[in-house]
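Look over what follows to help learners.
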Amino acid sequence: MKRVFIILVLVVVCILLFACSGDTADAPTDALTGATESSDTQEEPTSNEPATPEPSPEPTPSAEQPETDAVSGATEVLTPATGEVVISFEYTRQSGPASNQHAIWIEDMDGNLIKSLFASRWTANGGFATRPDSIAIWAERAGLASMSSAEVDAVAGATPSTGPQSYIWDLTDLNGGKVLKGDYMFFVEGTLRWKNYVLYSGVITIGETPVTVQGSAHFHFESSERYAALNVDSPENEMIGSVTVTFTP
């Protein structure tokens, strides 16, 4: 009986040893598998050369941009104007003081003076200093106070007699260079009597085709210390009649 017990004990010990042996055999397999994975990660080839970046795709050009900006825009902006502009109206000379002064000039659409075509000599040659209401709008925009004698002489003219008047713009600027094609503002200012004046204005398009436009009149009536203001029925309003502006390429 004792021998049988010893045999059973030995059998149980063998079974336990076999079981432990199986667990130990499995562990290296897991560890080895893990080591193998780690080794694979470490053994990946490395290089000191920088990786070549993939080229970025070229931007797709807009089909409209060259037509609107590069082509049509440049063509319109850089084309010099040719031809002439004629500004005409009927002039009625007035009797009495503080009247008959008038001026004609051209501006671009931003309000910059392009060229003065005419200014009454009395005002341009110093009369503005003693009577600052005389063609005051032109005097300010043309910078009369800082104009040289040569610049004044280039635009100053005698007061005309009653009758049709015409003034020509040869499409040059203050420096004598040709202006570019486009839209320009024209102005005709007349001092009717003291502070009362009329200002004709409008837009003329300089391009490839003839254009004729009428100026729009703005009358300003204002009294002074000794004189009452004019009104819509005052005869002085006829000093400068309807203004017609014609462009001929």
Q: What stands out?
A: Helices lie at 2-42, 65-78, 121-130, 136-142, 149-155. The domain at 81-248 is CATH 2.60.40.4070 (Immunoglobulin-like).
